[in-house]
Amino acid sequence: MYYSPGFAGNASRRYAAVHAGSRVESATPHGLVKILFEELLLAMDAAALAMDKGDRLKANDKYIRTLSIIHALDASLDMDHGGEIAVGLAQIYRECRRLMISAHQTGNAADVRKAHAIISEIADAWNRIG
């Protein structure tokens, strides 16, 4: 049986989408945030790599993904009950958005790596919680 060269890639992407969907469906609220952090760090890595290679199309795609995930994390903050922690996280997310926008405008992956370092620290702390 013959399959086109793109068949394996399409099947792999379909499997990844199903796997991600099942991870999300079975996750606790804490687990959902963990998944968001994981996906954000992966998208930031991919954006920086694409910028380094001069692949503007992929860099733009990953830039949009990072902003979407940062927005989701920011929107999940409970500002009524989260106190100083929620305010601090909102400020951190704002700074990460600023760094990503700067990187997108200049094509400089250094700002993406700064944002990645910031998010990585928060993700590590989140993982230690539970």
Question: How is the secondary structure organized here?
Answer:
Elements: H1 6-25, H2 29-53, H3 56-75, H4 83-106, H5 109-129
Helix pairs in contact: 2-3, 2-5, 3-4, 4-5
Task: Name the features.
mainly alpha; 130 residues
Q: What would a concise description of this structure say?
A:
This protein is mainly alpha-helical and 130 residues long. It has helices at residues 6-25, 29-53, 56-75, 83-106, 109-129.
- What general form does the structure show? globular
**Which blocks of ≥5 consecutive residues have pLDDT under 50?**
none
Helicity, in percent? over 70%
Structural class: mainly alpha
What's the gyration radius in Å? 17 Å
Number of helices: 5
**What is the helix/strand order?**
HHHHH
User: What can be said about the biggest beta sheet?
Assistant: none
Structure description:
This protein is mainly alpha-helical. The protein is 85% helix and 0% strand. It contains 5 helices and no strands. The longest helix has 25 residues. The chain is globular. The N and C termini lie far apart (47 Å).
